[in-house]
Amino acid sequence: MHYVSLIIEFLRGRPRVVFWTVALAQAALWTLIPSLFYSAPPGEVPMVLAIGHEFVLGSYMGPPLAFWLGEIAFRLLGIFGLYLLAQACIVTAYWAVFKLGSAIVGMRHAVLGVLLMIGIAAFTVPSPDFGPAILAAPLWALALLHYWRALGEGKRGSWFILALFLGLLLLTSYVGVILLALIIVFTVATQRGRGALREPEPWLAVLLFVIVVFPHAAWLQTGYDLILSAINENAALVGGMKPVAWLIAALVFSHLGLFLLVVLASGWPRHRRRWRDAAPEIVRTPVEQLARGYVYFFAVTPALCAVAFVFASARLGPLDRVAPLLVLSGLAIVVMAGDRVLLYRERMVSSAWAGLLLLPPALVVLSLSVLPWIVTADLTIAQPANTEARFFADTFQRRTGKPLSYVTGDIRLAPLVALASPSRPHVYFDWAPQRSPWVTTAEIYKNGGLLVWPAADAAGTPPSVLKLQFPAMVPEVPRSFSRTVQGVLPLIRVGWAVIRPQ
Question: What is the pLDDT of residue 194?
């Protein structure tokens, strides 16, 4: 008896159920695993919250929308709210690709495109690290969906929705400039696009777009140098590689899971003719030429433009996270596969797909539990953020009679203490004071604050930059903290000092 996996049976009969099951299952995994097992948020989340706490119109990390939404989610539901927001972004990106695919290749093939996206690493393992790139992915996908509805389906009202999502995308990440430029090129280059420009809606949508991006554009008049200085920092080697080599490697490695699924499902390298009668088949109506070109163009050219930009500038800039560039990779593979998709090795494909879904979170849990007993590598997500913040906040409160209002010191440790402290203090970037215009050293001396840094010796000697800015500081005896799973790792030693209010 020929084996047919449950995924394929449901894909044929209930494709919408398959989509929501897959999307929500992945979202549940990457919401619960960090919430239950991470002692500290991953990546740049502490810095995102440190900037978002100030609700500024822009920062050295770019436009403000991701920082605002992250702060709102954190205030409502704590760190769980931030993980939930990140997965809501991923699910929304999947939904937009599903709807776009349904309009172009039909619902069943659209689900195949979403299933392939599970094999794109940029949408799985790094997804709890909420930031501009994670928020940009659904906005990018939604913009492409409504651009197709406006251009391909002739829904003239969709031009306004497109303008809104493009504006929000540029309020999230400067990567959106690539999509904006490509939309202009595609509109001018196609006959249907040039015909649409004879209607008033695209031109009125430009006005809506300008209104949405105007506040941040006005901020850029004074914040341009701040953005440029941050981009220039990325001119150095990234992980020992040149920026363009790093970006190409990131694009390739992000697709490895997708490539695995495609190779297995294609039957390569065996002779497919022997299997043709045994392979389940999923059929669609033919795809029109404009739709095919649309998918290929917006699946391939964003990455090519990003590589060209990094090569020309020798800087990564906002391209250090590639998720927005890859939203149509799965759909492009499905369009390329043809109108009749034969799924060979469905048992192996189903197992591989389930492995790509379940194995990464399982490895994260395993690494947090086992690695501390094997190697001395210190995982940032194992930092005891709540314990550290509670100790320093309580100590400051007891010594000064005031809640902790300002934290500064180490670029990773200070934002971490700030986000986990009950009073949510402001973070002063002593390593780059111009990037935290909401506070000065004079205000810290006036209202009091906390200085923290990793202790490199028993005396807790502070960094020279910190000592220069706060010459009156008196370092305390370093405080040691243990991790949830300590293993063979040394205790975390934190140097600290209290600046008493004047």
Answer: 93
